[in-house]
């Protein structure tokens, strides 16, 4: 079985200058992301080393291969979710564009939610209801945007849906700054969301004709 180690991504320095989300929170959050990268590599190194005896003992209640496969998906979800989360936050100093959605993305939001305000209301309520993550995803089959709730790192598996926004709702994303006030954190999340980046991502995904080798997301 082939496996290549992954390495943590580097994010824009603007991530450390957010409004309402402190540098301390971001620094601690990035440590968790690094931990997911490390654990994903560690788990997959163990999968590569599985022996015939391990495969012969596969069991749905408990087995080594079950444990490693489940935890691999959890660790990988922690990597990918956080990479999307961190990459969409913050603006370059002096930049005023990207504070609200425009163009193709705004038109699609209006079609699917009725208005941008309705979209924000839906995302906020979803964020208050989630135990882990909320993703705004583009459904390739249905051709619509929808806010999906996930209660764990590895609960995203929604067929034919590509996320364009990821909002972390675990307490570690906001507790230093907001305590139990998740609503306050969600407001800060909106304030720091770079809609120019999100819009570019959406247009790339919506117009994608790459097929199985797609890397638009």
Determine the strand fraction and express it as a percent band.
5-15%
Count of spatially separate domains: 2
Give the N-to-C terminal Cα separation. Answer: 26 Å
Low-confidence stretches: none
CATH class of the largest domain: Alpha Beta
Overall mean pLDDT stands at 93
Helix content: 40-55%
What overall form do the CA principal axes indicate? Answer: globular
Order of H and E elements: HHHHHEEEHHH
What is the name of the CATH superfamily of the largest domain? Iron/manganese superoxide dismutase, C-terminal domain
Biggest sheet statistics: 3 strands, antiparallel
Give a structural overview.
The chain has 217 residues and is mainly alpha-helical. The chain folds into two domains: 67 residues; 111 residues, minor pseudopilin epsh fold. The protein is 49% helix and 10% strand. It contains eight helices and three strands; from the N terminus they run H-H-H-H-H-E-E-E-H-H-H. It has a three-stranded antiparallel sheet with strand order 2-1-3. Strand 1 and strand 2 form a beta hairpin. Helix 1 runs antiparallel to helix 3, helix 4 packs across helix 5 and helix 5 crosses helix 7. The longest helix has 26 residues. The mean pLDDT is 93.
């Amino acid at each position: 079985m082939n496996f290549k180690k992954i390495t943590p991504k580097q994010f824009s320095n603007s991530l450390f200058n957010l409004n309402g989300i402190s540098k301390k929170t971001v620094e601690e959050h990035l440590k968790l992301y690094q931990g997911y990268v490390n654990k994903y590599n560690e788990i997959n190194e163990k999968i590569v080393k599985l022996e015939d005896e391990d495969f012969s003992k596969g069991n749905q209640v408990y087995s080594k291969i079950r444990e490693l496969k489940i935890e691999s998906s959890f660790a990988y979800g922690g990597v990918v979710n956080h990479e999307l989360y961190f990459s969409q936050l913050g603006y370059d100093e002096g930049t005023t564009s990207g504070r609200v959605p425009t163009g193709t993305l705004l038109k699609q939001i209006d079609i699917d939610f009725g208005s941008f305000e309705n979209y924000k209301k839906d995302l906020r309520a979803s964020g208050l209801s989630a135990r882990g993550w909320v993703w705004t995803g583009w459904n390739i089959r249905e051709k619509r945007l929808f806010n999906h709730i996930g209660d764990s790192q590895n609960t995203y598996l929604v067929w034919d849906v590509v996320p364009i926004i990821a909002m972390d709702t675990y307490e570690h994303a906001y507790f230093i700054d907001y305590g139990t006030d998740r609503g306050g954190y969600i407001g800060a999340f909106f304030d720091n969301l770079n809609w120019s980046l999100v819009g570019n991502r959406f247009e790339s995904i919506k117009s994608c004709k790459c097929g199985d080798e797609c890397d638009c997301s």
